[in-house]
Amino acid sequence: MPPPSLSADRVTVPQSDVERSRLLLYGCAAVVVVAVLAPLARAGYVLRYDMVFVPRQPLRWDLLVPSGTLPRAVPQDALVGLSALILPGWLAQRVALAGLLAAAAIGAGRLVPARRDLTRVVAAIGYAWTPFLAERLLIGQWGLLICYAAMPWLVRAARDVRLGHPGAGPRVVLAAACASITPTGGLLALATTLVLARPDGRPGLRRRGVVVALAVAALNAPWLVAAAVATTPLVSDSRAVAAFAARAENWGGPLVALAGTGGIWNADAVPGSRTGPLVPLVTLGLLAVAALGLGRLRNRWADGTATRLAWLAGGSLLLGAAGILPGTSGALGTAVDLLPGAGLFRDGQKFLIPYALGLVLCVSLGAERIADRVPAGGLVLVGFALLPVVTLPDLAWGAGGKLRPVEYPAEWAAVADAVAADPGPLLSLPMSAYRSYPWNPGAAVYDPASRYLPAPVVVDDRLAVDLRPGVLVIRGESRAAAAVRDRLAVGGPAADETIRWVLAQGGGGDRPAGLTEVYRGTELTLYRNPGYRAAGRDPVAGLAGYLLAGSVVAGAGWRRATTRRRPR
Amino acid sequence: MTTFKTLIVGAAVGALLAVAGVAAAMAVLNPTAGDVATEMADQANAGGTGGKAAADPNEPPNFYGAR
């Protein structure tokens, strides 16, 4: 990602001070990375909810261009598959997690238009230690967190485009490319670019803003094209809006939880400290400090960026609250039911990223404003820098020990070898999207078979959510999984002629009729279906999206490299 | 007047940080009986999440998540 300048407020700063400030930020970032990811020094893979890393993730068609399911991890899976060509999965996971934490801290520290180094530290630690980051980490959505980490860099670059700074356009595209490895991130990057990069001045600048916006829009092509060629219905179950709506974490209610950048729908992904009785009071205190800082942000970014960022942050907060507000929740449910792709918005809390950044910038400048008025101002800033850690101590040490690496049992490799010898669609039983394993205690994880095995994997894509009281089963979109469920419901065979392999997880059990046992371990049993008939063609057209996005990124990278090399 | 304002603001920030720090430390060091019971139940289930209550740790979790 391109580095934003430290002189964000356009104040001339001696070079030695800039270097010291940079070193301070890098030090902060290193401390945050070590504090959060220390347990990952052990060997193995962190497997938790949506975070699935495997030794070598294959570059499979159904991961590049999923035609039987919605493209929720496009182009993330393609990038992980590509990285597996040069990096083992355990290393890729550590690079991704450490990189996103460091980029978030450094990006926020550089972005804030501060007059003191310690203000940058407040922003750096504040942005890399939020409830949002902790909760999305605990639910395993590292791809969304890369968007979170890229946001400060994108905001800076988009502002520079609007102000006509040379070389800013490629920086926007490169930062947006990092943000766009998930569909949600791609939409957030596009919205941020449209709001912040749209010039209101000379026609030349306006044309440049349009080109940059089009380039960022093109970064969404992989998942848009994949959705267009998919055979699955693009509308989702509207009941998911209530299930995935923002949730109260304490007596403060869901709106206060959102205001503090928390409020994820899943109680299992909420750090224990978020349930404390003082958390709402701390949130209200931060909002008061942020109100102090907003004025300073508007003064330092007198070009209107602060106002635009405030609108963007407000919009993301509204989107986060859409599932719980009367009126909007109904409208959102209707949209999810009727509009293709609207299901992206059912979990609105994940769109809080611009709000989180705006809040951190304002709190940092509010803290600086307070520090300017008291004798021991440095101490006040140190206090504000430590406040996120004090109020959310259980993000440290792998989110309180919840992010701990485990090793796959050897039988996973044996099954992968057997499937690789005769690739074909595999059905993973029992029917469930998520698994729990005795070797991965305390964590549910998306079925690793879908990433580990070199074949398309059919898993049950329905989601059961405990509403306390009551259970809601959100319908899936996969027609293949629905067909399996229908067969099993009437006592029919698990596999028809479209299934090559059946993987029974959990060990034991009798051999299903008509299948040949190929491998039996303590936990995994693999059957071959002799009645399999190869059918269907790979969705080659889906690669068009990758070509478009890849060309845009390559072009921006080339422009960026030549711009930096050019003498000034 | 400036000194007075400084004292007030400094005291307010200090009190806020102190209260938050003490509360967070207590939350970490002194889990409630409910937390202990939940943790023991999770360990007993050996699956921990998702409201899983089955004895077989290989069974899929009953829920993707719980509100």
Automatic annotation (TrEMBL), chain B:
Keywords: Signal. Residues 1-25 form the signal peptide. It comes from the Bacteria. Residues 43-67 are annotated as: Disordered. The keyword Signal applies. This is DUF2613 family protein. It comes from Paractinoplanes toevensis.
